[in-house]
Amino acid sequence: MDTQKLLYCVLCYFLLSLLSAQQVVRGSLAPHHHHHHHSHRHISKFRPSKLFVFGDSYADTGNTGKAWPSWKYPYGITFPGKPAGRFSDGRVLTDYIAKFVGVRSPIPYRWRKYGIPLLKYGMNFAYGGTGVFQTLYPGPNMTTQIDTFHPLITDNVFTIRDLQSSVALVTLSGNDYAYIASSGGSAPAIQSFILKVVKQLAVNLKRIHGLGVKKVAVTALQPLGCLPRSTAMASFRQCNGTVNLLVNYHNLLLEKAVATLNNETNDSPFLILDLYASFMFVIENKGSRKFENPLKPCCFGISSDYNCGNVDESGAKKYTLCKDPKASFFWDGAHPTQEGWNAVYSALQPTLEHLY
């Protein structure tokens, strides 16, 4: 891939967008909004009582099959104490959003038959490895996840009234892009693919809201260039700036798409959770929670970053594990630890106030 050409193209886009009047101001971490919205929160009539979740491993709480690493030790060692399908040592973004809304983490679709009383908190359709299109990994993409949700409304598992007091969390964490950057695509090809991804994501968001869900929160793309699988070559010392420029392009398009969707509706139901800014805030140690080397993961494969949890034929570990997951921001090659998610959640608080 011609990196310089790519950088140049992306920079042109940035300049254009900065000159355009529609530039949305990224103020998601500005703390001064905080108290202002807090005071409104209690007077507003909307109080969510259910959470519906669509997306990938940043939100999955147990939908993947037992063959996935998320069901192998050491995943889940912090919570619930054994592997249970979360791609972390413990809780993930869904669990923190549920906590904010004030409900229990919604039951994974896969376990719906075993947890009928838990249906009252909503449902989680997210599945590790998926995206808006078919990715390298098996599993239902976002369209299929929404297709699965739809009949539950027509069959009255969830009523129209349930949906009116509900929030959706939608995560898109880069599985659609997993190989395009490394496969040497040209800059224009990568850019047009990013456009396609964001366009399809917007279609999905509109559809979830169209089914009756009151508020829809979607994640901006996290800094993919800072994930341990991107920084391993640099001994986890610095982020890959080229990759992050592409992420910024995705996020800029997402801001425009969401602004358009909000303009088309009366009550601005769509909200971006800026994982880029919140990950960066934590990685740069600006929050109250400091991580000694935020880029270094707790559990990392010896021969490949995907090996956390894998063992060879004789049962020897193919990974190294840190002493204390609480001291790490990243858990494995791509996912935060529970402590990492907690720090990201703290940084997202001002934005989350808008869910009410």
Describe it for me?
- With 356 residues, this protein is of the alpha/beta class.
- The chain has helices spanning 3-19, 33-41, 93-101, 142-154, 160-164, 187-210, 228-231, 241-264, 275-283, 338-352, and strands spanning 50-54, 107-108, 122-124, 166-170, 215-219, 270-273, 299-301, 319-321.
- The protein is 36% helix and 8% strand.
- The strands form two sheets. A six-stranded parallel beta sheet has the order 2-3-1-4-5-6, with helices on both faces. Strands 7-8 form a two-stranded antiparallel ribbon.
- Residues 1-41 have low confidence and may be disordered.
- The protein has one domain (46-355): 3-Layer(aba) Sandwich (Rossmann fold).
- The N and C termini lie far apart (45 Å).
Strand content: 5-15%
Counting DSSP H or I runs of 4 or more residues, the number of helices is 10
- Major sheet size, sense and barrel closure: 6 strands, parallel
The termini sit apart by 45 Å
CATH class designation: Alpha Beta
What CATH calls the topology is: Rossmann fold
Name of the CATH homologous superfamily: SGNH hydrolase
Q: Can you tell me the CATH architecture?
A: 3-Layer(aba) Sandwich
Query: What is the N-to-C succession of helices and strands?
Result: HHEHEEHHEHEHHEHEEH
Total E-strand runs: 8
